[in-house]
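May I ask you for just one protein sequence along with its backbone structure tokens in two labelled lines?

_____
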Amino acid sequence: MFSRLKEDITCVFERDPAAQSVWEVITAYPGFHAILVHRFSHLCWQSGFKWLARFSAHIGRFLTGIEIHPGAQIGRRFFIDHGMGVVIGETAVIGDDCTLYHGVTLGGTTWKKGKRHPTLHNGVVVGAGAKVLGPIEIGAGARVGSNSVVLKSVPAGATVVGIPGHITDPNAKRRTLALDEIAGKMDFDPYGLTADMPDPIAHAINRMLEHIHVLDKQINTLKKVLNEAGISCPEPSVPDLDDCEITDSYSQDKDQNNESSS
């Protein structure tokens, strides 16, 4: 038991530069308190004392602002930073060396019994406000960016951002981090994000624009060959993007109403 407590305190210093002393962690870190309460409530849950387990978890939520169902399975060196608003469902499974920030939800998408909450493998980081929903798996060393909504399983070593969640670089080589590297600061991404992280939506749009540019060059080459062969090709004017007028149904209905009223 004391070795587990020592691990929990040590991982706080490894992942939170604001931690000043062991006494501060023991007395003023709600994430640390929530884990201690959960261990007691989980033991009660496994022993068949369901009401006591739920009541102790309820007291823990009142004291820390972190709601962990006593049925959830949590591994070693689990760290909850800040913690307010964190919700972990009954059938959630969390591996070793995982990190959650405030506002994270590990929730379900159905009212049916059985496995309905996510499984986080070793070394997963879930950023503030992220929602990971359903009986999906988040691979070892994966990162979930802040405020993301993840509804599908994530490969090991991937980074997911956005609503719904998109892998930032689906063609990147997957990496599975060793446990000692995961807990270290060198490979730790606060909030699951980095400043130079690519935007998957912008990346997709840029690839589409590149594709359109290649098609334009091919069409111009084809027209040139046809003209040289004596086949005339009509040249319809292509408006510039800045000259295009975008109208919606609301604007059209409004114009029609103005014409009818006049």
